[in-house]
Amino acid sequence: MATVKELIRSEADGSISFGDYELAVKTKLKDFNHQGDLYKVKTFKEITKLERNDLFVYESVPGTAVEHFQVTAEQVEFQVEGPEDAQITLGMEDDTEYLTIVDGVDAGAIRTNLGGKLVLSVELGGKEKVNVKVVKA
């Protein structure tokens, strides 16, 4: 199981990795500096949440481990793993349509609400890692 034992870390490719779904109690780390932004992560077996500069970025129920999380103006891409299927919420642009690709399979288009939240489900049970890519349509 590839949880992120330091809760959040910078990767050589410029991405970040975060989350530890094996923790029994909620653990937090704030003010993690990555490329000029301050990140805060809260994680344990029931939930993993990430904020950047006090703004919502990622949440999963139950908790997950996320690797190589990268955000650009056009897309979000990452690898996720966990002990069971998860509902993932991403903070994106308001009222915008995105194409979702899960493990190389087109999972369809999703439109964000006025708060910019995009919700998708990922089947994780028994899989090593699942690749997720969300691209602005």
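the 2nd protein, sequnce then structure:
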Amino acid sequence: MWKKIAIVSFALWIASVGFVVYKIQYGNAVKVDKRMEIRLFPEERELILGEMRSLLVGLKGIIQGLSTDDFERVKESAIGNGMGMAQDVNPALIAKLPMSFKAMGMGVHKSFDELAAKIPGATSKEILKEVDVIMSSCVACHSAFKITEKLK
């Protein structure tokens, strides 16, 4: 009898671990059109979209700084979009996001930190090349994911 209980317990444990791994990998995403749809509550969706808008503001600051040779502004804008920006996100929200989305997002933040470190001594053209690489990640993310509202 105890062997049956042990086998059932082990099977339930494996199923639970499998479910947790699946949720970590895929979050709340489902495939739609050619993109992965991420369904979030309205306030969670607004938080993610707000962060994306902040990234655009930072990119604008970089481009504006380059246009006026204000490399201090370029550096401040790059730092503002770095990993420090991503620290205050709710862990429950992070768990809902697919791993590929999280990896892309963290990669973008890290790229901004790396850009900020390269700015002293870099030319405008070198900085723009880095911005082009970062923007390629943004385009790839928007091509791969669709964030929609989930009703409560």
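The mean pLDDT is 87. Helices lie at 2-26, 42-67, 71-80, 91-96, 99-118, 124-144.
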